[in-house]
Queue: 2 jobs
Job 1
Amino acid sequence: MPVYTVHAPKSLGNDFRAAPEKIVFVRDGFHVWAFLLGFIWLIYRRLWLVLLGYIVVQLAAEIMLRFTHASGFAYAVTMLVIALFLGSEAGALRRWTLSRRKWQQIGLVAADDEEAAERRFFERGSADSFAFSPKASPAIPMPRSSIAAQDAAGFFPMPDGSR
C-alpha cells in the first residue's frame, strides 16, 4: 500500500482544515511518468530547480558521451540510468521543492490512491491526531538497550540525544 506524505503551507499553521485545497499529498515510491516523460513531468509539477538540474545533467552526459565517442549502447544505458534516478527520486525531489517553498509536512497516510489518502487524512479527527513531528516519540515504546550509548561508539545515537 503506498504511503503519502501530507504537506501544507507554513502560513496556514495548524488551521489547514480551513483551506483543504492547499494541502498536497506526495506519494512515496517509483513514479512511472517521471521515468517515462521526465522533462514534461517536471514542468507539469512545476519543479523548476529540479528541471534545471535535470537539463544540466542531461547536457553534461550528452557532451561527455559525444566527447568520448561512446557507443549507442553506452548512450542508452546512461540515459536509462538518469531516467531511473528521476523516477525513483521524484517524490523526494517534490518534497524538497515543497520544503524550499516554505511548506511543512503535517502527516503521513497509507492508502491505495491519492483520493483514499485524502479521505483517510481528513477523517482522522482533530489536528493533534495527525500532526507530524520528527521528534515525536514512537507510538509503541521501544525497549531500552542494556548497552549505554557511549558503548556503541556513536553509530547508534539515542533519541533526543546529542549528535
Job 2
Amino acid sequence: MNLAALQEQLGRVREELNAGEQPTRISVRELLRWGGAERRGSNVAYAIRQTLRNAGVDTDPNFNHASLDTELAFRLDLPVPPDNVVPADAEPAPIVGAGDAVQARPVAAAEGVAEQPPYLGGAPLEPAFRISRLDAANKQPLSVRPDCSLAEAVTTMLLRDFSQLPVMTNERDLKGVVSWESIARHLQFDAERPTTVRQCMDQGVEVKESDSLFDVIRLIAAESYVLVRAADNRIKGIVTSTDLNLQFQQLSEPFLLLGEIENFVRSLIDGKFTGEQLLEVRDGADEGRPVDSVADLTLGEIIRLMENPERWQRIGLQIDRVIFKKELDRVRLIRNDVMHFDPDPISAEDHQSLRAFVQFLHQIQRLN
C-alpha cells in the first residue's frame, strides 16, 4: 500500500473538516485507490483504519461495512486523549499490518509496574460479511404508492424486468410488496378484480443492513428477495436471488479458473521429471516438505522449473517460454490475492486475465 499518499489525502480531509467544511464524498473504491489498493483484505483494512485514526478522521458509513461503490462522508474522530499521549503534531506512529506489533504510543511506566509488551494487531474489526457489503443493498429501490394503479405497476415491472416492487409512501414507510405471485393470486381468487396495488400487495420481508449475509441467504432463497433497512430507518436497497447468484459467481469463479489452470499446468510436467529434479525447485524455506509427485509443487515452484531452458524443452511446448512464464507468474500473483479470501471480488482486469489464460491453455491442448 501507498500509505504516504493515503496520509496526504486524509490530511487534506482533516484540514477541510477543521475549517468547518464538508469534504467531497468519495466511494469506498476511491478511498482504497488513495492507498493504492483495490480490495479490502485484512492488512489493507487494518492499515486504512489506523491511518484514519491517526488523522483524526472517520467515515460514515464505516468504509469496511459498505459496498465498494457506496459514497462515504468524512467526519472528525477525536477521542479524548489521556494525559500521557504524544501531542497531535508529533510524527504519527507507523502503520502495521497483521503479524506486526502494534506501535503503542510511549507511556512512562509507573514505579514498580512493568512496561506493557507490544501486542499483535491486524485482525478485521468486523469479521462478519454483512449484507450491506452488496451493491444491491445500497441502491435505493424503485417503489410504487399504495394507490398506484395495477396497470402502472405491471408496466413498470415488465419494463424493468422486476419480479417485485416495494409499496411505499416515503423512503421509511414500507406498506408492503407487490409481486407477480401476489398479483396472480389476487386475480385468481378475489371476488372483485383488483385495480390498485393496495389490493394486491403482501407484507414486505425486511432485514437490517447489519445482518450477516449468511443468516439472510435462507430468507432470500424462500422469498426470492429481502428489503434492507438502514440504521436511520430508511429502506436503502433490495437484494434478490439474482443479486446473490451474481455475487457468488464473482467470488467463486476465480477459484474454479485457478483450479483449472493449476491442474493443466501440472499435467504439462507430469511424467517428464525425476523426483530429484522436482526437489531441486522446491522452496528453500520449506525443505522439510516432501515432494513425491508434481501435485506437491506450488505454482511458484512450477514457474521455477520452467525458468530453465533445458527443462522447458522437456515439457515439449512449441510456444515462447518467456511469455508463458510471465503470464503464469501473473496468475500466481492473482492466486495469492484470491486465496486471502477477501469479501471484495478481484478486479475485472484480473478476472479477465484468468479467463483469457484458461482459453489459451485450451488452445494449447488442442494443438499438442
